[in-house]
Write a structure and sequence with these properties.
By secondary structure, the chain is mostly helical. The protein has three helices and two strands; from the N terminus they run H-E-H-E-H.
Length: about 90
């Protein structure tokens, strides 16, 4: 993959996601959070974007994140940054 050399130069690693909120398509933070809640499983890596609709809806991204965290926390999920040894390697990324 073409990004690997650039990541390596910066000491970074490519991490794929397993649940996507579709926040670049949906315009309603509640629906984004609902989708994530419906699809999430223990060990999931959630993809949310930063900077979408900043001009027209400046609170959109923060609201998506806030609702997602509230919903999943109430279901007992914790949010962590995975340690390198917890990540699978060698497979195709998304």
């Amino acid at each position: 993959m073409f990004v690997h050399p650039a990541l390596a130069r910066r000491g970074l690693q490519l991490v794929g996601w397993s649940v996507r909120g579709m926040d670049t398509i949906r315009r309603n933070p509640e629906r984004v959070a609902q989708r994530i809640e419906r699809l999430v499983r223990p060990g999931a890596i959630i993809l949310l974007h930063e900077g979408q609709r900043v001009e027209r809806q400046p609170e959109f991204n923060l609201r998506c994140l806030e609702l997602t965290l509230q919903r999943l926390t109430s279901r007992g999920f914790r949010f962590v940054i995975p340690r390198p040894e917890q990540l699978r390697t060698g497979g195709a990324g998304k």
